[in-house]
Amino acid sequence: MKDQIKLAQQDTNVIIEELLEDGSDPHALYIIEHHISSQNFDQLEKVAVEAYKLGYEATDPDEDVDDNGNVVIGFDIVVESPLNAELINAQIAEIITLTNQFGVNYDGWGTYFEDGSDDFNEVDNIETLH
């Protein structure tokens, strides 16, 4: 499992660097989406419940068909976070531990470009942050 975590974490700095080079706001809060998939919906549901207990949100599951014609179900474990490699890598380790516990796949993470032009007022929205 440690190798799986290290492999998943290798892309973190590259993703962050690319976002910042493209002009993304280094001080913004980002929606980090950790991608999870499996053919077993029940196991995915258990991961979502455990992730929620750890303070994460989960998106609704989507079905897709892989290259071999198998139905694969996926969802994202979501958290609002600064664009900080140490924090994101800790999330990766925690979520991979969950995925291994329930026998589902961790498919990496992603986020969206933030240009800093959002009219987000931290004082007004502090209660909605988790």
Summary of the model, kept short:
Residues 11-111 form the Regulator of ribonuclease activity B domain. The protein is 42% helix and 26% strand. With 130 residues, it is an alpha+beta fold.
Q: What does this protein structure show overall?
A:
- This protein is an alpha+beta fold and 130 residues long.
- It is built from four helices and five strands.
- Strands 1, 2, 3, 4 and 5 form a five-stranded antiparallel sheet that branches.
- The longest helix is centred in the N-terminal third of the chain and has 20 residues, at 2-21.
- The radius of gyration is 16 Å and the shape is globular.
- The two termini are 28 Å apart.
- Residues 119-130 have low confidence and may be disordered.
Shape: globular
Return the domain count.
Answer: 1
User: How many DSSP E strands?
Assistant: 5
Helix content: 40-55%
Round the Cα radius of gyration to an integer and report it.
Answer: 16 Å
Strand content: 25-35%
CATH class: Alpha Beta
Structural class given helices, strands, pairing? alpha+beta
Poorly predicted runs are 119-130
CATH homologous superfamily assignment: RraB-like
Query: What is the architecture at the second tier of CATH?
Result: 2-Layer Sandwich
What is the residue-mean pLDDT, rounded to a whole number?
89
Query: What separation lies between the terminal Cα atoms?
Result: 28 Å
CATH topology: Alpha-Beta Plaits
Instruction: Report the sheet with the most strands, covering strand number, pairing sense and barrel closure.
Output: 5 strands, antiparallel
Give, in order, the helices and strands.
HEHEEEHEH
